[in-house]
Specification:
Layout lengths: L2 E7 L5 E9 L3 H9 L4 H4 L7 E2 L12 E8 L2 E13 L3 E8 L4 E10 L5 E10 L3 H35 L4
Antiparallel strand pairs: 1-2, 2-8, 3-4, 4-5, 5-6, 6-7, 7-8
Length: 169
């Protein structure tokens, strides 16, 4: 499946990551996959040592806050995000309340492709700590690596889920 991934710099020290990938799953199943916060464990690289701290299962809706722990280059990080927009099955936005970035807003949108699969778009606007130097040395490379992993893992998970749903018993 095709993937597009880029990071650009905008005015005011903000950066924008854009990611687009197509998954072999319908729109409602794809949204349901992302609506289950525990699936973050499946699509987050193991080297980040990602753990959801909030009690699970998590009921996703506008205003839901989720706490995580992870390690970035070996340093422990606490992260809390809030679902600031919840519009099933087309889009949602998670915004960092507390974490490693000066600002982080991640919009997820889902569209139907001409062949009936789902196009997963990620639009992340962020400000890196310590600005341009940190972004150039660490953040850009890390985010591109994380989103490549995430896109691949999402494709695999949804392909397996779709195959298991289509099995004749």
């Amino acid at each position: 499946m095709e993937e597009q991934l880029s990071i650009t710099r905008e005015k005011g020290g903000c950066y924008v990551l854009r990611s687009k990938t197509t998954v072999e799953s319908n729109l409602s199943d794809t949204f349901a996959f992302f609506a289950d916060a525990e699936n973050l464990n499946l699509i987050t690289p193991t080297w980040l040592k990602f753990t959801i701290v909030s009690d699970t299962p998590i009921k996703m809706s506008s205003g839901t806050q989720i706490e995580y722990r992870l390690k970035i280059h070996g340093f422990p990080v606490k992260w809390r995000s809030e679902i600031s927009l919840w519009d099933p099955p087309h889009r949602f936005v998670d915004t960092q309340v507390k974490g490693p970035y000066l600002m982080w807003s991640h919009m997820h949108t889902l569209d139907i492709s001409p062949d009936g699969h789902t196009i997963v778009n990620d639009y992340v606007k962020y400000k890196a700590p310590f600005g341009r130097l940190t972004n150039r040395l660490f953040v850009t490379r890390d985010l591109l690596k994380i989103f490549r992993y995430r896109n691949d893992a999402t494709q695999k998970a949804l392909r397996l889920e779709s195959q298991s749903n289509n099995r004749v018993t």
